[in-house]
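Standup notes
- DV: blocked on the single-chain target, sequence here:
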Amino acid sequence: MRRLAAGLGLALGLAPPAIPMARAAAPAEGRIQLYVMPDTQAWAWNQGGTSLETWRAVAKALCASRSRFAMVLHTGDLVDRHQLRPVEWQNAASVLGELDACRMPYALAFGNHDFDNYPKPENEVLQGNRAWSAVVGKLAQQPIATGPSERSALHPLAPGWFVLTGDFFIAERDRRWIAERIAERPEARFLLLHHQCAKASGVAFPWCREVLEANPAIRILVAGHWLGPQREGWHRETRSAGPPLLALYQNYQHVPALAAWGVVIELELASGAACVWSENLLTGEVDRPSTPSPEFGTIPAGPKRRCFD
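- DV (later): unblocked, structure below
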């Protein structure tokens, strides 16, 4: 595995802000904490003039809390309109390089903005991942297995737990690949990291639900993608067969005041119970407050910490 070239972030000529110590405690024995890094597309082109450095400061704060987090889950859309602003890929790589430098494990979902032809011409389909692969292939963090699309992957998480990432559209060949990886580990449980399969109200599409119904070993779903006034949605959903599913959605894009916010999942490994909350790693503040936004109006306050059995 190759690491990104040293000094890539410094080449941008920007000094990162100071990082205070995180206030939240490390998880208790038998539990792990995961940090959800929602879509970063607008931060990659530095919306608001400071969001890129805020994103980089969050990565540094994660490294400063290296013993606290077992993994970072990125919900996809690393970049925004990279055909118009190719520097976005360099910016995204430089931030992920911060996580590589401290050996923080992470998994990356593949978003619609990550396709080669996004924004796509009219009457064309989204296609291609050469630019995404060129960046991701140079990162130190690599999955232990990759699906036929090259955009689905398997990552180890903790004893008895794995993270599966799914392609933006999970085609039949990747569905089979996911089922095969799960079948190889009959005693394991899985978290599915997908760009669009969960929204504020729960599971987003019938085809997403089909994947989740067919694979009851997937216990948690994490997604981003959707925009609007509601930026989080955390639900416990029943399934026709197997245990309930914890469906988590979050996306803070295009509101620069929320660039430092992410979501923490504290998972009890033995039972699968989890607690979820939003957190600003730069200030230690939890439970995201309401935030004014010129584009979306006031973003209502996010849900307070919730625990699911």
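- Follow-up: The CA atoms of residues 146 and 153 lie 4 Å apart.
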